[in-house]
Amino acid sequence: MRDFVILTDSSCDLPADMAEELELEVLPLSFSIGGQDYHNWLDGREISFPDFFAKVRAGEMGVTSAVSVGTAESKMHEILEQGKDLLCLSFSSGLSTTYQSAAIAAEDLRGEYPDAKIYVVDSLCASLGQGLFVYLCAQQKKAGKSIDEVFAYAEDMKYHICHWFTVDDLNHLKRGGRISAATALFGTMLSIKPVMHMDNEGHLIPVSKARGRKAALMALVDQMERLSIDPAGQTVFICQGDCYDDAKLVADEVTRRLGTKDIHINYVGPVIGSHTGCGVVSLFFVGRER
Predict the structure, then answer these.
(1) What phi and psi values does residue 227 have, to the nearest 5 degrees?
(2) What are the beta bridge partners of residue 165?
(3) Which end of the chain, N or C, is less surrounded by CB atoms within 10 Å?
């Protein structure tokens, strides 16, 4: 059985050391802020996560770019040249053209490497939801599963990765077209916080509203209580936009209510953070449905 490599992109927001431990190859997305262009590396080597969010707090806006076909093809070529097969797990097609770039690159390379297995999966996930999806697929690989088995697992599991999140500043969602200007204005005045999730098409969907920040954070845990499979035994990821204490509050509540022990908190990266702003908290877990 040929060895294979799991390739993903930096929208997964995994800690860099975890990505390395899982032996992942990671394509960086790009963004610009304050007149400077950067790659979104998982280790923040071009701009640290605190520095990025400091710019956002100062009123600067990030503009993001997907992975290009050329960048995807170059990395895939490098892997295939080693005689390995390739499983690419991409950022949701509902939010980015990164998946389409990877799919085009893979199609171009299948003729050049007819003996190789090259699979591309639209994760329908984002941020550490994508990270959790990739993490679970990597665990399957570590358990000795073949590329065909992990591909089949991925196509099923992506519909069970629950993304629940809230934001502190509604104006970023307004700028991204997720909510209307009037909703942002009145929500801000009344301290109304949206509770949102990712649907089966990989789009962000407002589900409910909470009065005040703490109520919104507790609403995320309510959803995990409602939907999760074996909450005490699973791995849970939480991402935060420069608001670690709020993320820790959610983690503590998940442990208190559901007994979950394996919880990882990390920054939301600059590509996702450009669209959410500071103060985003997201809870990711495996559920019966999204």
Answers:
(1) -110, -20
(2) 196, 282
(3) N
Report the b/e string of 76-105 with b at 16+ CB within 10 A: beebbeeeebbbbbbbbbbbbbbbbbbbbb
DSSP designation for 80? H
Structure tokens at 183: 């909703």
User: Are 122 and 95 contacting, i.e. CB atoms less than 8 angstroms apart?
Assistant: no
In angstroms, the first-to-last Cα distance of the chain is 34
- Percent helix, strand and coil across the chain, each rounded to 5? 45, 25, 30
Q: What are the φ/ψ torsions at residue 124 (nearest 5 degrees)? A: 60, 20
| Cα–Cα distance for residue pair 172/36, rounded to 1 Å | 20
Average pLDDT over residues 73-91: 98
Query: Which residue do the tokens 């990505």 mark?
Result: 19
- Going by C-alpha positions, the residue among 75, 83, 155, 168 that lies closest to residue 122 is 155
Dist. CA 72–CA 286, nearest whole Å? 29
Query: How far apart are alpha carbons 178 and 93 in whole angstroms?
Result: 17
Q: Of 273, 47, 62, 34, whose CA–CA distance to 168 is shortest?
A: 273
pTM flag (> 0.90)? yes
Q: Which of 156, 87, 165 is nearest to 124 (CA)?
A: 156
141-161 average pLDDT score: 98
Residue matched to tokens 């089966």:
200
Question: Could you give the count of Cα atoms lying within 13 Å of 63 in the half-sphere of its Cβ?
Answer: 6
Q: Using the structure block, give the residue that is written with the tokens 């697929």.
A: 137
- With both helix axes pointing from N to C terminus, report the angle between 98-110 and 69-80 in degrees, rounded to the nearest 10: 50
Query: Average pLDDT of 124-130?
Result: 97
**pLDDT tens digits along 8-30:** 999 999 999 999 999 999 999 99
Residues 173 and 243: their CA atoms lie apart, in Å, by 18
